[in-house]
Structures are given as structure tokens and as C-alpha cells.
Design brief:
Blueprint (H helix, E strand, L loop, with lengths): L1 H27 L6 H14 L5 H20 L3 E4 L9 E4 L12 H12 L6 H8 L9 H13 L13 E3 L7 H17 L3 E6 L10 E11 L6 E7 L13 E4 L1 H6 L8 E3 L1
Antiparallel strand pairs: 1-2, 2-5, 3-8, 4-5, 4-8, 5-6, 6-7
Length: about 270
């Protein structure tokens, strides 16, 4: 009997140990992939393709800017006769108009338009700060062109022979055929090369009832019927008061009247 009891006890002990060993093995097994793990993986995938993700937004902005720059490099110039019966050739750069956001920000707005046409985007407020624009005068032309050259050509000071905008002082207006001829030559060259002209005018000479010194952007011209001369000049005016319901700030004027309007300015300049 003692032997039988000993054998039974031995069997019970072995069974107990085997059961414990099985439970331990279960605890040490690596847990299977849970739903939570799967959700985390999906979260990572969603982040990589999320259009609102900051990195993706930056990439989209870079793509849009690259497309704008490609559009500029094609050097879009309207070279048309709008009416089939019209024999006057019209040449105009496709500069996107802007309206000045502060009453004395005409110069920063003009420079912003010129830069944006060349694929360089700087807002009016940033430019005004760099130019030292102040109330009530506005901006000195030398500072406007200094900042324009900085952004466009990488150098604030224009040296002889270096690509840059240069300031010209008008002293004769309609009395100087040489000044008129030179302006027309520079206008044609600038428009052909894709560089709008910056110009200062006395608005009282152009817009009856208004007064003050003001800046505009010359973007093209209309030739005479024979094509041998410039009849009118296209320019963009950023002033809110002169915006047209159809054409916005797009205006036309003769070269003679534009140059003559500069003679009474404190700074009678254009930059080419």
C-alpha cells in the first residue's frame, strides 16, 4: 500500500509541475498585434498623406511658386490688336495689379507689383519698412529703387555695367524731344526684356481734382498706326481712388503728358 501511495503522490506532483510550466509559457509569449497597434499604423499613414500637414503645405506652396516662376519665365507679353480693324499694335506685360493698403504706400505697392511679375513675392508692408516709408511724404525714390535692386538683383547699389534699375531725372518734359525719345527707347527695351518701369507723377496733371506726388508702374504701350512711334503708354495705378469698375488700375496716357506731369514733382524720376 505504501508503494501505491508513493506512486500516486509522484504522479500528482508531476501533473502539477507540468500545469505550472504551461501557464508560465503563456505569459512569456509575445502578445499578438492588437487593434490599437493597427490604429497607430493607420495614423502614421494618414499623417504622411494629410494635405493639412505643415510640411505638405510648404511643399504645395513651393510647387505653386515654381509654377508662377515658370509662367514668368515664359515672359508673357500681350502683343495684339484688340480690334481686327485696329492697326495699332499693343504690347503689354501681364503684371498682376495691386491696390495700396495704406494711403502713402504707392511706392512699396509699385515695387511689389514689379517684383511679383519677376516671380519674387514681397508684401507692401515689408517693403515699406525696408524703404523707410513714412507719413506724410511716403517713400524717397532712391530708397524704393535700392530695395527693388536688392530683391531683384541681389545688390542695393547699382554699379556701371551691372544689371539693375537706374533712376532718371526728368527736367524738360514736353520741351525736351531728347528726353521723350530716350524714354520711348527705354520703354520698348524694358518691356521686351520683361522689366516694368517705375514712374513718379504729379496726379493733378493727370487726374483733375486730385493732387499730390504719386508712383505708378508702366507695363506697356500702344504703337501708332504706322508702327514707327509710341502713341500711348499702359500703366498700373495702385491708388484706391482711381480704380475702374472694369479695368481696375489699368490706365493709358501719352508719353508727353506723363513726362510733363513729373516736372512739378519734388522727385521727378522714373526708373528703368
Amino acid at each position: 500500500m505504501k508503494i501505491i501511495k508513493l506512486l500516486l503522490n509522484a504522479i500528482l506532483i508531476v501533473s502539477f509541475l507540468c500545469g505550472c510550466s504551461k501557464n508560465i509559457d503563456k505569459k512569456e509569449d509575445a502578445p499578438p498585434k492588437t487593434e490599437e497597434n493597427k490604429k497607430e499604423d493607420n495614423k502614421v499613414n494618414r499623417q504622411e498623406n494629410n494635405p493639412n500637414d505643415k510640411n505638405n503645405i510648404n511643399n504645395n506652396e513651393a510647387i505653386n511658386k515654381a509654377q508662377d516662376e515658370e509662367k514668368f519665365l515664359n515672359n508673357e507679353i500681350f502683343n495684339t490688336r484688340e480690334n481686327p480693324k485696329d492697326t495699332n499694335r499693343k504690347v503689354r506685360l501681364n503684371v498682376i495689379p495691386q491696390v495700396q493698403k495704406v494711403w502713402y504706400y504707392c511706392a512699396p505697392t509699385c515695387i511689389s507689383m514689379i517684383l511679383s511679375y519677376r516671380g519674387i513675392y514681397v508684401d507692401q508692408f515689408t517693403l515699406a519698412k525696408e524703404m523707410g516709408t513714412y507719413e506724410p511724404f511716403g517713400t524717397h525714390n532712391k530708397d524704393a529703387i535700392r530695395v527693388l535692386n536688392k530683391y531683384m538683383f541681389g545688390n542695393e547699389i547699382s554699379d556701371t555695367g551691372q544689371a539693375s534699375y537706374h533712376l532718371e531725372v526728368v527736367v524738360g518734359g514736353v520741351k525736351s524731344s531728347q528726353e521723350i525719345s530716350l524714354f520711348k527707347q527705354r520703354l520698348k527695351k524694358n518691356i521686351k526684356d520683361g522689366y516694368p518701369i517705375y514712374l513718379t507723377m504729379d496726379v493733378s496733371k493727370i487726374y483733375p481734382g486730385l493732387k499730390g506726388e504719386h508712383n505708378v508702374v508702366v507695363i506697356g504701350y500702344i504703337e501708332t498706326e504706322a508702327g514707327s512711334d509710341i502713341k500711348y503708354v499702359y500703366y498700373l495705378d495702385p491708388a484706391p481712388k482711381v480704380q475702374d469698375s472694369v479695368y481696375g488700375g489699368l490706365k493709358i496716357e501719352t508719353v508727353e503728358r506723363l513726362l510733363n506731369s513729373m516736372l512739378t514733382c519734388e522727385e521727378p524720376n522714373y526708373a528703368w
